[in-house]
Amino acid sequence: MVAYFSMEYGLHEEFPSYAGGLGVLAGDFMKSAGDLGLPVVGIGLRWSQGYTSQHIGADGYPYDEWRDQKPDILTDTGARVRVRIATREVECRVCRVGRYAIAPLYLLEPTDPRDAWITRRLYDPRPDCRVAQEMLLGIGGVRALRALHLPVERYHFNEGHAVFAGIELIADRMETGTGFREAWRAARERIVFTTHTPVPAGNEVHPLADLKRLGAGCELVPSELAEIGGDPFNMTVAGLRLAHTANAVAQLHGETARAMWAHVEDAAPIIAITNGVHAPTWQDPRIAAAHGSDERLQAAKRALKRELLAEVRARTGTRLDPAALTIGFARRAATYKRPDLLLRDPERFAALVKDRQVQLLFSGKAHPADHEGKAVIARLVAALRQWPESVAFLEDYDMALGRLLTRGCDVWLNTPRRPMEASGTSGMKAAMNGTLNLSVLDGWWPEGCEHGVTGWAIGDGTASADPDARDLRALYDTLEGLVLPAFADPARWTRMMRASIRMGVERFSSDRMVKEYFARLYSVTSPGR
């Protein structure tokens, strides 16, 4: 049995225990594992307020709103575990998620209201709270598996948040009299690790003194903790040293991750297993049913576009033209994703939208503590107000809005600074629905792109002294010279939609991803480092 540890799970918008792509990937993983009947169990935390709802104020700035979540989908298993955090024993109940067709998923939450602060908000930015959350996930998660008497053979850490589970496994072995290095080696035989963040600054670091004060090191002494994660303690470095094998989430990301972590001694080898998405969740049934008929495919796409534009009108009052090329951009707000790239040439942009041949839909959230990300949204909203008849921003991005956009748009735009996008699963969802990708060759897209067949590449993926200027020119040249002419030719556009759907379903499903995890990660043992 594989125990999959993740800080967040995106199962459905009604259960907001996710912040973004990492959680939605974890949810799709659990759905595919359940569909395939594979021996997987998930471990996470039950967040009382989940993640923020984010709304645009009159000043155009995004503001956060937190709401208590009282889902009726959890069943108390009766199991209880304790984790000592600083001077306090925190008791947690272990609940099972009782809805959605998924592999078994267990969530921990404190039983005492005095400890509720730990699991109130996903990714609390306060350092002590973040470590406490990760202690409950990792240490508490291992203890929950024991309390449930589950025969776990492999522990899969989805990002570095779960690495204290590895510390717990080492400490547990040492209690039997095993030495530190032998206990570490034994734990490593059972652990695999997925790294998602191709930006060094995005990898979490904690002072060793804080970990010892809070008890995150279990019974390990500081020098032993430092051997695993360094001093200060880097959660990604710890994941790489605790695992026998690690994986990146796209082929290009594998190259980036291997280069970024090449200096880490005794790290696990990093292979690449490209992400996938759960087709039954993300592909509209009308698209899936239209594979044998161009007419049905075109009719399904028109219906999805009408539904999307009706939602845009209901939310914003903007009446968009169903005959115009509709471009979507929706993802976490981050500066490297450059959501405003298309707006940086005002003359060419005005020429596109003034006669409404092109219209754009934007959406996204910034982390509550990410002031740069919020500033990105504010600048975007301010710019979009210049073209209210052709451009709209849809606030409070969630899974429901993600489905509408990836199904109903004509083109899915992606403009990261290469190679800073690890994967980019929204593009896979779009592809499965015949929404053609127009993207920088980053993340998953170098694997899925047949230029002019399944979508279009922005640029050629080579390095540049000024990537923003280079990509801006390439974006407009491709949009004006290739995308618009193709959209004006319905037969050609339909052929491209069909090629995109086939590519997405056959190569980028989470069923394929999960099978690849079993074949390439879970069946492998330590190379004996």
Provide an overview of this structure.
The protein has 529 residues and is α/β, with parallel strands linked by helices. It has 19 helices and 19 strands. The protein has helices at 21-36, 127-147, 164-174, 180-188, 208-214, 222-229, 235-242, 251-260, 279-282, 285-289, 294-316, 346-353, 371-384, 399-408, 425-432, 445-448, 467-487, 490-507, 510-522; strands at residues 2-5, 40-45, 53-56, 62-65, 74-85, 88-97, 105-110, 154-158, 191-194, 205-206, 233-234, 245-248, 270-272, 325-330, 358-363, 391-394, 411-414, 436-440, 455-458. Strands 5-6-7-2-1-8-9-12-13 form a 9-stranded mixed β-sheet, with helices on both faces. Strands 16-15-14-17-18-19 form a 6-stranded parallel β-sheet, sandwiched between helices. The chain has a two-stranded antiparallel sheet with strand order 3-4. A hairpin with a 7-residue loop joins β6 (88-97) and β7 (105-110). The radius of gyration is 23 Å and the shape is globular. It starts with a strand and ends in a 7-residue tail after the last helix. The model has no long low-confidence stretch (mean pLDDT 95).
